[in-house]
Design a protein that fits this description.
This protein is mainly α. The chain has 6 helices and no strands.
């Protein structure tokens, strides 16, 4: 009878060792998966930062051109709105630059390129009048937003390159 308990104890020890080995193997796999996920997250963040850096470089260029009156405000606001909306790591930019987005909202429905050419002269004049009216109403707000946007963009570029 004592041999039975000895064999049972030996079998129990072997089972415990096998289970401990298997548990260790699983813990090692979990640790590797966590490390791979962390690396993937870092790579994804780097890709998002690279995208946003390109966007902010373009935003800075357009902002400077608008401040130096080398770019029309309506075209600049259109381009800035599209670029800022494409940011991946920064949100809530609409509320930070209300003048730019308000002007964009006023003009975004106007015809451009071939669609503009297809308009009658009267329709083009009506759109031009509405565009000029919106530009006059929003000019000071857009100018103020450009200063804030320039500062904001410079700060973001510093953050992304650090």
């Amino acid at each position: 009878m004592s041999d039975f308990w000895l064999y049972a104890l030996l079998l129990a020890v072997i089972i415990v060792l096998v289970l401990a080995f298997y548990a260790g193997k699983l813990l090692k796999q979990v640790a590797q998966q966590k490390q791979q996920q962390a690396q993937a997250k870092i790579k994804q963040q780097q890709a998002l930062n690279k995208h946003d850096k390109k966007v902010f470089d373009s935003v800075l260029l357009i902002t400077r051109a608008m401040q130096q009156e080398q770019c029309e405000f309506d075209e600049g606001c259109w381009r800035l709105s599209v670029l800022l909306s494409s940011l991946k790591t920064v949100t809530e930019v609409t509320s930070k630059f209300p003048g730019i987005y308000t002007l964009y909202d006023e003009i975004k429905g106007f015809a451009i390129r071939d669609a503009r050419k297809a308009l009658t002269k009267k329709e083009r004049m009506r759109e031009d009048y509405q565009r000029m009216k919106a530009l006059n109403e929003m000019h000071d707000k857009v100018v103020a937003d450009l200063d804030v946007l320039h500062q904001f963009t410079s700060e973001q570029l510093t953050r992304l390159t650090a």
